[in-house]
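Worked problem 6 (solution included).
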Amino acid sequence: MMDKKNIGVVGYGVLGARLCDAITLREQKYGDVHLLGVAKPSFDYKARIAAEVKGFPLFYAGEKNNFAGTDLKDKVNGRFVDLASQCDLVFDCATAK
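Solution. The predicted structure is:
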C-alpha cells in the first residue's frame, strides 16, 4: 500500500473549493490522501466557508496575517510556509494578481 499523501491548497475560489471537496471525498473512499489545509491571502466569506462550514484548517498566505482582526483569528493554524513544509503536494488555485 502506498503512503498517504498530505496535500495543501492555496486559494478557495471555484477551483480551490472543488479541489478540496475532491480531496476530502478521495480520502474518505480510498484513504490515500489527506487535506492538511487551505491557505488564503485575505479574509472573506470563502475563508469562513472553508474554516467553519467545511472544517478545513486555515492558513494565511501573504505578507501579514489579515485574519488577525477577525473572528476567524483562532481558526488560523499558521502561515503558508507552515502548511507547505508539511505537504507532499501543494496545489495553487489562487488567482493571478
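Discussion: The mean pLDDT is 91.
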